Amino acid sequence: MTCVSPEGRITPGCTGLYAPEHEVAWRRIVGFVHAETDAKVAIQLGHSGPKGSTQLGWEAMDAPLAHGNWPVLGPSPVAWSPNNQVPREMTPADMDKVRADFVRAAQMAERAGFDMLELHYAHGYLMSAFITPLTNRRRDAYGGSLANRMRFPLEVFLAVRAVWPAPKPISVRISANDWVGSDGITPEDAVAIARLLQAAGVDIIDVSAGQTSEAARPVYGRMFQTPFSDRIRNETGMATIAVGNIYEPDHVNSILMAGRADLCCLARPHLADPYWTLHAAALLNVKGETWPKPYLAGRDQLHRLTGRADPAAERV
Q1: What is the DSSP string of the chain?
Q2: Which of 46, 74, 95, 202 would be a feasible disulfide site paired with 50, CB 3.0-4.6 Å?
Q3: Same domain, 278 and 263
Q4: Does the annotation mark 18 as catalytic?
Q5: Residues 151 and 298 in one domain
Q6: pLDDT tens for residues 220-255?
Q7: Overall number of domains in the chain
Q8: Which domain holds residue 280?
Q9: Rounded to whole angstroms, how far apart are CA atoms 51 and 132?
Q10: Rounded distance, CA 134 to CA 49, Å?
Q11: In terms of pTM, does the model score above 0.90?
Q12: Do both 159 and 183 map to the same domain?
């Protein structure tokens, strides 16, 4: 998640897109990728909300800073945990500023050359905190029913869509299950959320889950969040992205071929192996993928080695 304001950071180490020097740095990175590869580049924009002002993820996840904390915002004064700050309930002026921050970041992302935009509406961050009744206890037009709780996230999306070029897609990441039973967002609610986003013009929905409450009791397993993508895609007809413990090529192929999602995103596997996709293609004896030109010798050796390991592939 790239943060849209200093106070919208999760940690002091988070990337941002709110200062002129950020735009310059991102433009250099995106320009390099476009010049050297045929890859497309997306950026995910978000605001930390109640889960902001915390330590780096590899220090103590979601724990307040030892010093130098900044004030945090939320739809209601509901803290992420007893150890975290109680957020200040947002006023109309706060909403106007946050909406403007997202618009500014989207405009900077366009000038930097990004090909796609994703808005982070999941995992208990600000937009997610509006969507789930666990943290949205407002009594005005932005609280209560699901339609009301979706009002501000939809306003932000529409404002961003208005400044983002029409040919370039926008995705939205949601938490499709709070994992706390009927008191929170359920998979049935997620279908309704997807319909609202679809009607607003969202191109594809990134279907994650959880991380909205310490009371969550998720059921982990291989491809454990794919059923939520499957349900949204096949009940709404909306394009979806499946995420969550997808780590083998067969996982990806089975999800896509069964029509459970239109795309799969693999984060942790790529942290462990940035060339996961290229290695997976070699294992499957797929040779149409694009490698960086300086790595072609490595590609050829990998194909030779995987071919030897698979006699059937050696004969192809």
Answers
A1: -EESSGGG-SSTT--B-SSHHHHHHHHHHHHHHHHH-S---EEEEE--GGG-SB--TTTSTTPBPSS-----EESSS--SSTTSPPPEEPPHHHHHHHHHHHHHHHHHHHHHT-SEEEEEE-TTSHHHHHHSTTT----STTSSSHHHHTHHHHHHHHHHHHHS-TTS-EEEEEES--SSGGGS--HHHHHHHHHHHHHHT-SEEEEE---S-TT------TTTTHHHHHHHHHHH---EEE-SS--SHHHHHHHHHTTS-SEE--SHHHHH-TTHHHHHHHHTT-------GGGHHHHHHHHHHHHHH-HHHHH-
A2: 74
A3: no
A4: no
A5: no
A6: 999 999 999 999 999 999 999 999 999 999 999 999
A7: 2
A8: 273-316
A9: 14
A10: 14
A11: yes
A12: yes
Residues 210 and 240 in one domain: yes
The answer on 110 and 150 residing in a single domain is yes
Structure token pair of residue 230 = 């499957």
Q: What is the CATH number for 108?
A: 3.20.20.70
125, 142, 220, 247: the active-site residue? 125
Residues 238 and 304 in one domain: no
The whole-angstrom separation of Cα 82 and Cα 252 is: 39
Look at 67-76, 88-97, 277-286 and tell me which has the smallest mean pLDDT. 277-286
